[in-house]
Structures are given as C-alpha cells and as structure tokens.
Design brief:
By secondary structure, this protein is of the alpha/beta class. The chain has one domain: Metal-dependent hydrolases (TIM Barrel, Alpha-Beta Barrel), CATH 3.20.20. It is 42% helix and 16% strand. 43% of the residues are buried. Bound molecules: zinc ion.
C-alpha cells in the first residue's frame, strides 16, 4: 500500500494529515466500523481535524471506540457543536483505560466498574473493541458481560480467535458480535462455518490483507462477501497513531476492492450495513 502522506513527527503530523481541499475524494460513501481515537493520537490530531479527515474521505459513519473513552466523547461533542448531520457516530465503550489493560481487562474489577459507569451515559451501542483469546473468554466477567450485552441489546466488538468467539457465544447465545479483523488470519472455510453456525456474528475486514489478490478482490473473498452481503463491514483500525496517516490509502483500497462486487453488495459492505447495524438508521 503506498502512503499518500508521510508520517511526520510532532505538531507537523496534524498538518500532514490535513487533506488538501482540492483533492476531495469522491465515490462510495464509507462507514468505518473500527476506529480508535486513542490518547496518543489526541496529542497530535484535534477532534476537528479527525472530523475534517472523515468529511474529506467520504466517511459517513464511524464506530468509535477509544482508549480512554474520552476520545470518543470529544469527537461526539465536537460533531454536535459543528451541527454535522452528515456523519453519524456509533459509540462503543472501550474497556481499557491504558494500553496494558488489553491483556487483563477481563480479570480486573475496576474495568467492570468502568464499563458500568460508562454505560450509564445511555448512548453506547456496544462494548469493545476488546482482545480475548481461548480460555480467557471463560473468565466470569466475560460471561457476565456477554449476558448483560445480550439483555441490553448491546453489541460486542471482539478481537478474538475462533475459540474465544465460540466461548462468548456459549455464554450468551445470539449476542450480537463484531468479529474484529474477521479473525485476522482465520481460513475462509472456517469463517464461512462460523458465520453459518452463528447468525449474530458480523465480520469487520481491517488487516485482512488476503482480500487483495493481483490488485483486485480475491475470488474466494468475493464468493464469501456475496454469500453474506449483510454481515461484513469495513474498518481502518487506527490503533496506533501512525495508522492515521494511512487512512486515505486504507479507504481507497476498500473502494478499489469493493468495486469488484455488484454495486448493491459493495454499498452494503462499504456503509449501509454499518449504518443499519450500529447506528440505528
Ligand atoms: Zn482495533
């Protein structure tokens, strides 16, 4: 993937991320279903700049989940102040305060309190992205959280292996779950099997570099997306600050790959699924 803008150091970063207005993008609207505006990014990019980037890139909706959650709250407040009705934010509670929480959040009573406190705000659509693998998904809090999510109609956004996905769905059958990166490296036959077995599972496509083959959508991925047109969404996954400078290229790649699909299917995966599943529209 070539980079449109090189990552600069310090305050220059923000400027380098500001799009040249003459180069406004056209094409398929997009819903970014895997966005983090983490504390490190906040020190170099203002919420106004993030929203300007989305507008410039044709992003109409965003599943926002930030460490800590203040990043998401800042984006929502800025968008509300700006009166923007052209972008919808679907906020998710991130169960992390600091980066190391990703390793043991499920065994930390402070995280359970954090999630409960955040949910009192009343506007969150789900919990995640959280990382969970294998037997860790049987931790008592994971089971409690999955059941609570199902009861309250909240989504889970899990970066997980197949084993952990299965365990969570055993705790709360039918709980709606976004599978971050669609398992990242899970074989497509296995993904197909998981989708058949678990109708509440939705696949998010960031970091699935195997989607591209000879410069276009791979035939196997095409078949899978055609089989489940309502169950895939795209994402940028801005998990480290350097990823922000790649957002235009990442989105351009999605547009290029989705062009290999019939327009109605491409539109669903590009943005309609994101809006209908997470933004209640
Ligand atoms: Zn992520």
């Amino acid at each position: 993937m070539k980079r449109a803008w090189r990552l600069a150091i310090g305050p220059a970063l923000a400027l380098s991320l500001l799009p040249p207005l003459a180069a406004a993008s056209a094409g398929l609207p997009l819903f970014d279903a895997h966005m983090h505006y983490n504390v490190e990014a906040r020190s170099v990019l203002t919420p106004e700049q993030v929203i300007a980037l989305w507008r410039h890139q044709g992003v109409k909706g965003v599943l926002a989940t930030s460490r800590p959650n203040q990043g998401t709250l800042d984006l929502m407040a800025t968008l509300a102040r700006d009166g923007g009705k052209d972008i919808v934010i679907a906020p998710f509670v991130r169960p992390y305060r600091v980066q190391p929480d990703r390793h043991d959040w499920f065994a930390n009573p402070d995280i359970e309190k954090l999630v409960e406190t955040e949910l009192k705000r009343g506007f969150y659509r789900g919990i995640g992205e959280f990382h969970i693998f294998g037997k860790d998904a049987d931790a008592p809090y994971v089971a409690r959280m999955a059941r609570m999510a199902k009861q309250r109609g909240l989504w889970l956004h899990a970066h997980a292996d197949e084993d952990a996905v299965e365990r969570i769905l055993r705790h709360a059958p039918g709980v709606r779950m976004i599978w971050a990166h669609t398992g990242m490296s899970t074989g497509l036959d296995q993904v197909d099997l998981m989708f058949t077995r678990h109708p509440s599972l939705v696949g998010e496509l960031s970091y699935r570099s195997d989607m591209e083959e000879n410069g276009t959508l791979s035939p196997r991925w095409r078949a899978l997306l055609m089989k489940y047109p309502d169950r895939f969404v795209i994402g940028t996954d801005t998990w480290v600050t350097s990823r922000w400078s790649q957002v235009p290229d990442i989105l351009a790649t999605y547009r290029r790959l989705l062009a290999a699909l019939p327009p109605d299917v491409a539109e669903k995966i590009a943005w309609r699924n994101g809006i209908s599943l997470f933004a209640g529209q």
